[in-house]
Amino acid sequence: MARSVTVKDVHSQAFIKAYAAHLKRSGKLQVPSWTEYAKTGSYKELCPNDPDWFYVRAAAIARHVYIRGGVGVGALAKRHGGSKRRGSRPNHHANDSTNVMRKVLQGLEKLGILEKHPDGGRRITAAGQRDLDRISVQIVSAADAAAAAAATEASA
Asked: Cα-flanking dihedrals φ and ψ of residue 7, to 5°?
């Protein structure tokens, strides 16, 4: 009997990695040309090391909107922000780039994963929820298969 698996049942890091790979493989998410040069926030000193950072950020945002609908650009910028180093003065929180958040949300809207919420922000569509849940099922089934293989190998 197949059990029902959602994004909430899967470890966040495993889901984001798998969904980012899915977005890259599909080739439907339009990545802006400036992503190889841009920092992700004003508090950062360098641009990301990972060349696929835009896909990873899109996967993280899709997961966040799935779990907590009605979230907007400002809330996402605060969520993905970090600590601004200010020399000898104490560190303070700084928000992430709102341009990156906006471009990711617009890209996910074009794919039909997200839609605008009537009260503001974005929410997941039915097709988007189905897509994310399908990735979650694949992660759980791969983990179950690996556990079964390890069990048979240990007993042999």
From this structure: -60, -30
Q: What is the pLDDT of residue 156?
A: 67
Q: How many residues does the chain have?
A: 156
- Using the predicted structure, report yes or no on whether residue 116 has a pLDDT greater than 90: yes
List, as one string, the DSSP characters of the chain.
Answer: -PPP--GGGS-HHHHHHHHHHHHHHH--SPPPGGGGT--SBTT-SS--S-TTHHHHHHHHHHHHHHHS-SB-HHHHHHHT-EEEEETTEEEEEEPBPHHHHHHHHHHHHHHTSEEE-TTSSEEE-HHHHHHHHHHHHHHHHHHHHHHHHHHHHHH-
pTM of the predicted protein model: 0.90
Query: How far, in Å, CA of 64 to CA of 97, rounded?
Result: 17
